[in-house]
């Protein structure tokens, strides 16, 4: 009576070795030719196996590409700590991940392939959403009480900045970003990431809605309703005097003014006018 190949059996060990040979061949082929320029036959020949084994082990070329490029970005490990240093922690993570990257690095392969392959671009987008954007947005909402639409907009801006830096420095390899010392790059990137996270935030990416009480000078808190903007209205218009509440930040001439202090100052001015 035969038995299925289980862990430790000769058949299982042979299957694992075959799988590793296929992965090694695919890694080299994708790094040389990108996703579109690589064929299943080329990968199979490099691994010394029949092409049908790639379908058997990985479900085809796209599944093999996901297996080769699947790598942890480790963003979650950068989230814990003071909010004012979040930009510095994220910048350090990015620079450490990419400095000294090898030509066959899985993420570099995916980034290069994304420029010529819709499938590779989709895989890259899914990877960054799953391992970077969503964890960061969830952290801002869950741990810091941000309004979800505002968190998603800020994270989109941070992601665009990081992708631009990575592409310029490690793929295009030209210009000041490519020539900068790693420590200078980390400091530069940290300041700009933090600026995107700090108030005042950028205008909303979805102009039909905004978090109640947001404007651009105050970060809306979780639980604030999302309300439509007034058609043709000014989102930054100060509320009417009877709508202002003590202790809520107001913006005058680009500066934040505590309304409780403003009220106290107003009372003093009234007293002076009464003396005249």
Could you describe the 3D structure shown?
- The chain has 276 residues and is mainly alpha-helical.
- Among the domains are: 56 residues, Homeodomain-like (Arc Repressor Mutant, subunit A, Orthogonal Bundle); 123 residues, Tetracycline Repressor, domain 2, CATH 1.10.357.
- 57% of the residues lie in helices and 5% in strands.
- The protein has 11 helices and 4 strands, in the order H-H-H-H-H-H-H-H-H-H-E-E-E-E-H.
- The strands form 2 sheets. It has a two-stranded antiparallel ribbon with strand order 1-2.
- Helix 1 crosses helix 2.
- The protein starts with 9 loop residues before the first helix and ends with a helix.
CATH topology of the domain at 75-197: Tetracycline Repressor, domain 2
- Count of helices? 11
Strand line-up in the sheet with most strands: 1-2
Percent of sequence in beta strands: 5-15%
Number of strands: 4
| The CATH architecture of the domain at 75-197 | Orthogonal Bundle
Helix content: 55-70%
Overall pLDDT, averaged?
Answer: 77
The rounded distance between the terminal residues' Cα atoms is 110 Å
Largest sheet: 2 strands, antiparallel
Q: Which CATH first-tier class of the domain at 75-197 would you pick?
A: Mainly Alpha
Round the Cα radius of gyration to an integer and report it: 27 Å
Task: State the order of secondary-structure elements, H for helix, E for strand.
Answer: HHHHHHHHHHEEEEH
Structural class: mainly alpha
Q: Poorly predicted ranges (pLDDT <50, ≥5 residues)?
A: 213-218, 222-276
* Overall shape: elongated
